[in-house]
Amino acid sequence: MQLLCLADRDPAESLPGLDLLPHELRTSPLSVRVPETMAARFDAILIDGALDARRARAACLALAEGVATPRIVVLPEVALTALTPEWGVSELLLPTASPAEIEVRLRLLARDEPESKPQTVQSSGVLIDEANFTARLFGQPLDLTYKEFELLHFLAANPDRVFTRDQLLSEVWGTDYFGGTRTVDVHVRRLRAKLGDHEGLISTVRGVGYGFARTRSEEGQ
């Protein structure tokens, strides 16, 4: 399974049993808002509340707004009285949960997921495999960093549209990202370099932002 863990430390410290399972795990700080487009590419989201239940609650409430991906919160016994339906989580795990218990709960979540969940995005020669986090351009694999993959995925999933740098920061990096909009320009430049002769797939719309697979007459470099 593809798992996203919201934590401010190594997930193995809050849930040691998880480290013994063969699932692919990606981490993000508790304070970072996870865009719906990103959350949808994971089978489940783990929220680490073993150190700070209040911050975990805030993360859960943020996810409850429009994110359909199942959530599992990790809480110690002393914090269980704080857990309410308002948190919007599907499962609860204690930090001492065994690998077998973690696996069973993950399987139960997977059983309840819609089978029609999209697995690929294809646009103008770009093929994104969401399940395996891979991207191809006219059949050739692209060697992308995680954020480059996220940015290309978002743009390819929304062709012919233009997004401001602030919109891209919100959708790809999350609204709590503390860096400036220049990071968008840097990632676009790197993506274009990796697209090679097809760098024009990502266009610059003067005074607005960036678009994907737009006509040359609408763009400006």
Question: What would you note in describing this structure?
Answer:
It contains seven helices and twelve strands. The strands form three sheets. Strands 2-1-3-4-5 form a five-stranded parallel β-sheet, sandwiched between helices. The radius of gyration is 19 Å and the shape is elongated. The termini are far apart. A hairpin with a 2-residue loop joins strand 6 (120-123) and strand 7. The chain has 221 residues and is an alpha/beta fold. Helices cover 31% and strands 21% of the residues. The model is unreliable at 216-221 (pLDDT under 50). GO terms for molecular function: phosphorelay response regulator activity; transcription cis-regulatory region binding.
Number of helices: 7
Helix content: 25-40%
The strand order across the widest sheet is 2-1-3-4-5
Give the DSSP E fraction (strand runs of 2 or more residues).
15-25%
| Class from secondary-structure proportions | alpha/beta
Average pLDDT over all residues? 85
| Major beta-sheet overview | 5 strands, parallel
**SSE sequence, one letter per element:** EHEHEHEEHEEEEHEHHEE
Helix/strand layout:
Layout lengths: L1 E5 L4 H4 L9 E5 L7 H4 L4 E5 L4 H11 L7 E4 L16 E3 L5 H14 L7 E4 L2 E4 L4 E4 L2 E2 L4 H12 L4 E3 H9 L8 H14 L6 E4 L3 E4 L9
Parallel strand pairs: 1-2, 1-3, 3-4, 4-5
Antiparallel strand pairs: 6-7, 7-8, 8-9, 10-12, 11-12
GO molecular function, one term: transcription cis-regulatory region binding
InterPro entries: GlnR_N, OmpR/PhoB-type_DNA-bd, Sig_transdc_resp-reg_C-effctor, WalR-like, WH-like_DNA-bd_sf
Keywords: Activator, DNA-binding, Phosphoprotein, Transcription, Transcription regulation, Two-component regulatory system
